Amino acid sequence: MEASPSGAQQAPEIVSSVPGTFAHGVWTERHPALLRRLTEATPYGPRQRDALDALLTETLHGTVAALPEHAQDAALWNGPWDRGHYGRRWLQAPFLWAESYFYRRLRTATGYADPQEDGGARRGVDPFAPFKEAELAGEGVDEQLAALDGLDGADEAERTDALLLGALWGNRADLGFLLTSDEASGDRPLVADERPALHRLLAGAAERGVVPGRIVLVADNAGRELIADLLLLAHLLETGTATEVLLHVKPHPYYVSDAVPADVLAAVRRIAAAPAAAGRAGRLLTGALREGRLLVRSHPFSCAPLGYAAMPGDLRADFASAALTLLKGDLNYRRLVGDRHWPATTPFAEVTAGFPGPLGALRTLKSEVVTGLAASTAAALDDSGEEWRTNGQHALIQVREAEAE
């Protein structure tokens, strides 16, 4: 069994079988909308369209089928990532596990992974590329990059804070979430705001860590969010706050808009092509990639259906080497604290016990899981009448300054 954060057995895992819950709606609303958009955006042939239809039918009405033994990662899914859910109804399996496996099966259905009768013509072709490319080419990115000029007169602390908030709220640009939701309008006060602690960790990063000055950022989405992340990293490198950055992205297309290595290069080119401050940041990032000060990682565990408590030793060593690890986005948060029905006041440090080294979570709330809130904040949000945990209009910055003993 997967290791659990401290006290994890006190909170049940989230499953998708209860109508009216957010998790249930992902299967009955979001996934059908996603598959419609996929077939509209890409001229898939009968084989791919039939496979996508069969996958949707299986998830809603059938049982979880195992990967065939010839699948490229069958040893992982039928080995250490298997939690005994094959043969069960999809909606009865833990939400985190089942949703992750859905995207793995989608890669087979679209021809991205595994042998196909068409000779593998679609192998390695990102099925979500049309969505990512459209966002990256959009006017919103031009405005985002131009806004960087407004920070030219700010001091270093103000710039750091503004770029942190940009990276945080950039997490709203989640194409999977936007399939069934309107984009949030206007930034609200953070439900948990531990920026002072995060600034302390950043201020001491150059003298801390197994590799002093190494900062790890675990990215979430491509497009506007990744651009915001890269602008933050460029600032940290330029100021000497970080001497080296490890940028972790997904090795395969995942959750619609999750960033893969090709998305990093596309985003850096987009930034470097901009004028003024953004162009300077893009050139700095290009140089950092060439010099090895910005290293892109894509570990297989990044697409695992498990929490970070089950991470393998080599990934743990990456995080343990750093002065600070920043985890972006909703899915990384779920994997960090455990995808469970935690009381909102459960201490963040308790559920992140065992994660190696200091860490910060920057997350827009788009699923039911949340920890570390003040009792008064949680009560006010519960009394508000809105779906505050899942509507994408609230966010948090949480920090654990040292590894729990």
Automatic annotation (TrEMBL):
<dbReference type="GO" id="GO:0006974">
    <property type="term" value="P:DNA damage response"/>
</dbReference>
<dbReference type="InterPro" id="IPR002791">
    <property type="entry name" value="ARMT1-like_metal-bd"/>
</dbReference>
<keyword id="KW-0378">Hydrolase</keyword>
<keyword id="KW-0464">Manganese</keyword>
<protein>
    <recommendedName>
        <fullName>Damage-control phosphatase ARMT1-like metal-binding domain-containing protein</fullName>
    </recommendedName>
</protein>
<feature type="domain" description="Damage-control phosphatase ARMT1-like metal-binding">
    <location>
        <begin position="29"/>
        <end position="376"/>
    </location>
</feature>
<comment type="similarity">
    <text>Belongs to the damage-control phosphatase family. Sugar phosphate phosphatase III subfamily.</text>
</comment>
<dbReference type="InterPro" id="IPR036075">
    <property type="entry name" value="ARMT-1-like_metal-bd_sf"/>
</dbReference>
<dbReference type="InterPro" id="IPR039763">
    <property type="entry name" value="ARMT1"/>
</dbReference>
<dbReference type="Pfam" id="PF01937">
    <property type="entry name" value="ARMT1-like_dom"/>
</dbReference>
<dbReference type="GO" id="GO:0046872">
    <property type="term" value="F:metal ion binding"/>
</dbReference>
<dbReference type="GO" id="GO:0016791">
    <property type="term" value="F:phosphatase activity"/>
</dbReference>
<keyword id="KW-0479">Metal-binding</keyword>
